[in-house]
Write a structure and sequence with these properties.
The structure is a single chain. With about 30 residues, the protein is mainly α. The protein has two helices and no strands. The protein has one domain. The chain is elongated and about 25 Å long. It starts with a helix and ends with a helix.
Length: about 30
């Protein structure tokens, strides 16, 4: 939820890349 919220606050390309990286890490953990 926090990730999606941050994505809405900062819909910048750099922010999206960082979020995508975090999401990928979470997927690897699961």
């Amino acid at each position: 939820m926090l990730v999606a919220f941050k994505y809405r606050l900062y819909p910048n390309k750099e922010q999206r890349e960082k979020i995508d990286f975090i999401l990928e890490r979470c997927r690897l953990l699961y």
